[in-house]
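Good day; I would like, with your permission, to put a structural problem before you. What I wish to show you is a protein chain and, alongside it, a tokenised description of its three-dimensional fold. Thank you for your consideration; the sequence and its tokens are set out here:
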Amino acid sequence: MQYMAKNDAILQNQATTLRSFETQLGQLANAINNSPQGTLPGNTKVNPKRENKEQCKVIILRSGKEVRREVEEPVGTEGENIEEKPHEESLPEATSKPEITPYDPPPPFPQRFQKKKLDQKFSSFLDLVQSLNPSSH
């Protein structure tokens, strides 16, 4: 009997939780249906660059050269088809180019050259020992 009472309490708790989920889901569905089609839910802002029609005025290249751009506002009446053509003015190129040093990587297996050095040292050691003891020839 106690087991059945515990199960009934658990089932009642789950039923109330399920009803609250159904209510929340219904509220979300109503909110989605009431929002206008094709818009995002939130406060969107208009791009400020579109409002002011600002554009990049100076570009610095890797070589250090600066390229200036001046944007002229189009003049015309409403209804005319106006093409925007930016006016480009570039500074004279720098006379000296930056010095580029080539990359010289270290040898891939430095221990390979160590054996030759050790062999040379050992042979000089043997020569020294043989010069001290002339009878071992």
Q: What stands out?
A: The longest strand covers residues 66-70. The chain has a mean pLDDT of 76.
